[in-house]
Specification:
about 220 residues, alpha+beta, Jelly Rolls, Arc Repressor Mutant, subunit A, 2 domains, four-stranded antiparallel beta sheet, 9 helices, cNMP-bd_dom
Length: about 220
């Protein structure tokens, strides 16, 4: 399997295709490497490409009127962005995409993606599914920021990170606590206090700056409700 095919297998909108289709689409892909601190794109850049994270992580954020960052999403391996270019031409990014660690990204130009969708119309349905999920996640994030306390927001965030049947799982924070604070609509100082409060309540143990052991998942879920 080539690097380009490997990239396609990571993405829900492509991984349902057979190998021969994957090979054809892989020929349209360009592979790019980025260093930490680079930008995949910035606000004002034209949205004329689909980006797939093959390796690494990327912070998507926008600048508020007061100059503070509002983190929209942290892209990880298998995530993609730029799908709006499929449905509307001559649009421009409103957000910034900053590389958080050395990353590899697969890029498909708008014209190539348009042809791919003509050849494989089922991909359009997959893209719509993913866009619907993103809208739901965005609505959920906005609701949390406007209606829930910081402690509850943090608890809900940690619960969402759990991908295990264990009653006491350990989760790895996907980005810095500063970025998590901005994502949850608060300050780094406030999020540090809330981590400490959750630990004092016996809900979590901070094993390191990025590893959080959840003492009892049911208790954390109850706290977040």
């Amino acid at each position: 399997m080539t690097k380009h095919q490997s990239c396609l297998h990571l993405v829900p909108i492509f991984n349902h295709l057979d190998d021969s289709s994957m090979q054809l689409i892989a020929k349209k892909i360009k592979h790019q490497s980025f260093k930490k601190g680079d930008f995949l794109f910035q606000a004002g850049d034209q949205t004329d490409k689909l980006y797939v994270v093959h390796k690494g992580s990327i912070k998507i954020y926008r600048l508020l009127a007061n100059g503070r960052e509002q983190v929209v999403k942290i892209l990880k391996t298998g995530d993609f962005i730029g799908e709006t270019s499929i449905f509307k031409k001559d649009t421009y990014h409103e957000d910034y995409a900053e590389i958080l660690e050395d990353s590899e990204v697969c890029v498909i130009e708008q014209k190539d993606l348009t042809q791919i969708l003509k050849d494989y119309p089922e991909i359009s349905l997959k893209i719509i599914e993913q866009m619907s999920k993103r809208l739901n996640d965005s609505y959920k994030q906005t609701t949390q920021v406007t209606t829930e306390s910081i402690g509850v927001r943090l608890a809900m965030y940690l619960v969402d990170l759990v991908d295990s049947d264990s009653e006491s799982p350990t989760v790895t924070l996907p980005t810095s606590r500063k970025n998590i604070a901005y994502y949850l609509g608060t300050t780094p100082e406030s999020i540090s206090r809330k981590f400490k409060e959750l630990e004092e309540k016996g809900l979590i143990i901070q094993e390191s700056s990025s590893l959080i052991k959840i003492n009892n998942l049911d208790d954390l879920v109850y706290y977040s409700e």
